[in-house]
Every structure is written in C-alpha cells, then in structure tokens.
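INSTRUCTION: Work out how this chain folds

Fields: amino acid sequence; protein backbone structure tokens

Chain under study, with its fold:
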Amino acid sequence: MKNKNILFLAKLPVPLTCLILYIGSFQVASAHSESCPISNATEEGQPVELNSNSFNAKKRSSFSIAGQTEQIERGLTIIHFNTVQKFEYRTFDTYSSEEACGQLVEILDQLMENNAIFAILAHDSASNNFLDLSEKLKKNGFTQLRGLKSRQAYIMHNFNGTIYESVNDTSEALTLEIPDNVSDERIYFPKVHYEFEPNNNRYIAHAGGEVNGVKSTNSKHALDANYKKGFRLFELDIIETSDGKLVAAHDWKMWARFTDYNGVLPPSHAEFLKHKIYGDYTTLDLKGINTWFKTHPDAILFTDKVNDPIAFANAFVDKSRLVMELFSLMAVEEASENGIQTMISQEPLMKIIGDKLDYLAINNVKYVAVSRRIIANKTKLMLKLKEQGIKVYVYNVNFDPGKDEKYVQENEIGLVYGMYADKWAFDNYSPKPSK
C-alpha cells in the first residue's frame, strides 16, 4: 500500500467490518502481508469489489477499492477496515501451512471479539483439515469456511453486522459498499521495517533496463542508458540462434514482435544482426556483449535463460564479472566445481532436500533469485539467507498493480538484498552514478 504515515481516529463504539478472500495457485508457505498496513484508497460511498478464483479458474483473485486493485496469492486473505478511507490486509497460505491456519484463526477470533469490519477472499486453494477441525471457527460462525473444499472460491464479509459466506467451485464475485460508520484504530497486520545500507549493487537492470519507456529490449542502447543512470549490474537473457550462436533476447516471439520479423524462428545469427528493435535499438550477440562489458570494467553481467555454465563462462570476456542464474541443481553443482559465480533460481532452490543453507554453502552459492510474490510467505528463509550473507534479488517487479521499484524499495529491500528493476528510481537511496 502507498501511505505509510497515518493519523488514526479514536475508536468509536461501532462494529468493525472485515472481509476474507480465497486465492490460489501461488506457492507460499505461511502468512503473507503486503505490508501496506493501511491504504488511503477509499472515499465515502465507494464500492468494494471482491473477486475470488479457485485453482480451476486459472486466474488471479483480487479486490478493488476506489479504483485501487490488489491481486492476492494462494490461501485466504483478510481485509480489515479501519475507516471508510483506510484498510489493511494479509494473505495466509492456509493450503500448505498449518502454522498459517493457526495464525488466521487467531486473527479472526480477535476481529470477531472486537466487532471489527472485515472481509475474506480465497485464491487458488485454501482448504486445510486444521480449519475443518477448528473450534474457534465453529464458535465464531464460519460454517462454510470450516467446510471449504480444495480448489473452491470463497468470499466472506460482515458489512451488515452478520457473517455472510459464499462458496463456488470456480469463481465468486461480490460488490458492496463499506459501512460509513467504520472507525477502528487497531492494527492487526503491522508493517515490518528492515534496515539496509544503500548501495547501487542492490539493483539489477532487468533485460538491460528500460530505454525510452521500452522494457526488455536486451539492447546496447538499454545498457548505455542505464549505465549512465546508475546501474552497475545488468541482466541479459541469453538464447541461441538457429545456427547455435548466443545472443541477447528475452525469447524469439518477443524479438520478432519488437523487430517486425516475419521469418522462421529462431532466426540465424546473421538474420538476428540485421534487425534493430523498433528500428532504433541495436541487438547484441556474444561479441557485442563482450565488447560492451570490456569497455565498462565496473559493470557485472547476470545471465538469464542459459543453463550451460561452463560454455558461457568460457566465452565471456571476464568470468570474475559474471554471475549466472542457473535453473537446475546439476548446473549449480557444475558451476561450483568450475569456479563460476552462481545465482540459484527459485525452482531449484525449493527443490533442495535437507538444509538449503548447507547446500548453498557447500556449492559456494552467494546469490538467489526469487519472485517477490513469495517472499512475504518465506520470511524465515529470507532472513536466514540474509544472515548467511547470501544476496537475494527479487523479480516480478512491475508485474502486479502498484508493485513497482518504489514499492519494493520501501517495503521489501532489507528483507531481501535487491531487485531486478526496469527503471532507475533510487537516487534518494543510493550513490549518484559516476559520470
């Protein structure tokens, strides 16, 4: 959420309102908070739109208040209203975590005891045997929540002074107005602040960074523009042409769209070099990549897509300025054996059997890449990685409404080390770029 400095009104003797949403298909482990804790989004008479989608719906669940939309993750999301203008929310991954179930039940018990106004949404899958057996849910009247089946949509609210619940096998949607007498100063989901030291090595220019409003070009122009702005870490997507040459492009369909190329995909190396992105931006093959990094000796390359560490590291101009995101444990171990700096991607990280930190230490892994969508439910793991000096960078910045570079900077850096950023938005936090 956007506004962090809030003045609260004294509590009036009126009921509080609360909503719960059911959300799914996001792999998180415990309670999730977007740490807004309060948003000044609503105006009197503005409707609340609740959209709960089960796993079978194959789309994100969300809620909208006065034009501000928040997409939610797997599990149950509680939205608590302080006033008509202010709310807080948190997601609990009840599907995969009994600990999250217990936390949710306790919060609901407090909300009911305090006559709070709230709502609940489910996304993806939220059912858990812990909820079925909960005496507190039974006592408080959450009949359908206790009987929720796997992959069902669910909406609850108490705007009218009583519990309303609705369940559907695919999707549920509801639009209603926030009671105009809501006034509650209690904060159930306090914002957690993490200290960090400003450093421009916390920011990786995603696909070279944005250039003239265009993202994901992987172009020389993007590298040039974003180096001047302050980036020193640059991600490039590395893929192969039809004749086996390594080039920088996110994927061939996107490249064809960017260049108006109508031929067979993937193109040959020669064909790749003929085309500029939007007619203006110069594409990069491995020779071009090496030339650019040779002339920018303080820049570091982070690779994406390529999963052959030895071949690429041997071809790159300076292995000491190379960090390779790798997508299998076999590739991570191969890189470790050959002294290649490795960033383990989210999928293989989660597949590690046993102590993840021991595995990373044994294989000398100093970098981790994960989606920012999972970190609030993986805070214990994130903090353990931080304690061990492992730098976690989050991607999926700018994927969800309002979750841009500024949001991540103000709410999530410190829990994680840094981010993949499209834009340089850090002059107030990091050293000015060198000229």
Summary: Residues 200-421 form a domain with the TIM Barrel fold (CATH 3.20.20.190). The chain has 14 helices and 22 strands. The chain has two domains: 16-177, 200-421. Confidence is low (pLDDT under 50) at residues 1-38, 430-435.
